[in-house]
Amino acid sequence: MKTIIAAYSQNRSGKRIANLGYLEMTTEGLVLSAFVGGGSRASVQVALRTLLTVPWPSQWEFRTCIQLLSVLQWALSWLFHVLEVSCNLSTLYTVFTSFWPVSALYIAWVIFDWDAPEQGGRRSTWVRNWPVWNHFRDYFPVQLVKTHSLLPSHNYIIGAHPHGILCVGAFCNFITESTGFSEKFPGIRPFLATLAGNFRLPVFREYLMSGGLCPVTRRAIGYLLSQNGSGNAVAIVIGGAAESLACKPGVTTLILKNRKGFVRMALQHGAHLVPAFSFGENDLFQQVVFEEGSWMRGIQKRFQKLVGFAPCVFYGRGLTSIHSRGFLPYPKPITTVIGEPVTVPRIKEPSHEMVDLYHEMYIRSLLKLFNDHKAKYGLSEADELRIL
């Protein structure tokens, strides 16, 4: 094989093989000749010439392909819910086969384990460290920046901004270890709150819990902040579905003025508030933004109230080319900066004035984080953060 490899190397460098007959007389040539069934000398030469002229993918092309596949599987799972549907269909199908006892036992287990998502879940270090998440990170790439330390002796609520279309920055930084959260913040266990309905689906609920996802409910968040020890950091994408409707490149709008429930919970449990901003999150997709008062805008808002998320009309890159339109995010860098914690006292029944006070303190901390780092990560000094 050394002869073939050497010949291929010469061919890749622009040199031609002058004597294919010599190559045929080597051990490799004889093996190839026997493999093709004792073909003629000409046929062996043609086969070797074809083998040596086929362009092999470069290391860069192979790495790009793997990154694209990692983002594709993520998009199919979270955008089109392929993983959810397949889990449901598999469980249903098994009921009508000879493996029905397996489904029966699992359904019984789910009933018994129904409250697990709201009681800390079951994090898996193995799942959080899957190699696929490293390729997912490198596709954009995603980077986590630490500005202040988080002490393991406290619990935290991290406000993740902005929502964007699919919360890529929040997912990559808080659900996987690809950006090194545990190394940057030793002793801190990150969680990410998402829609509670996702945890009612068989099998898929186990997948969500293994990464550190929890329902965005008072009960689930309260458990992590009061009954799961210290060192817990619950990330909440505060803007939610309403913020995704205002997501478009070049504009940073946060839905935050009337979102004060997270501040009240922080006060009730004595959890410090930490702002986090993902620069570049709004650049991953192009969204069709409908004017306020239009019938399509009204449909989006009604849908949001009914099911908890808004049907955005958006597009990204295609599967085969970055210049074609498709459903995959554009490969643009995302930098998530963790800001300075706002120290919060524990008050069992905080007053409205107290909630407003710490809400204002949180907004000031978030604005400082944004203004201090926007020039470093793609924004100009003139760009402002709009808070609605």
Automatic annotation (TrEMBL):
Keywords tagged on the record: Acyltransferase, Endoplasmic reticulum, Lipid biosynthesis, Lipid metabolism, Membrane, Transferase, Transmembrane, Transmembrane helix
Cellular component per GO, a single term: endoplasmic reticulum membrane
Subcellular location field: Endoplasmic reticulum membrane
Main location: endoplasmic reticulum
Enzyme Commission numbers on file: 2.3.1.-
GO biological process per UniProt: lipid metabolic process
Gene Ontology MF annotations: O-acyltransferase activity
Protein topology in the membrane: Multi-pass membrane protein
Family, as annotated: Belongs to the diacylglycerol acyltransferase family.
PANTHER family for this protein: DIACYLGLYCEROL O-ACYLTRANSFERASE (PTHR12317), DIACYLGLYCEROL O-ACYLTRANSFERASE 2-LIKE PROTEIN 6 (PTHR12317:SF19)
Protein name: Acyltransferase
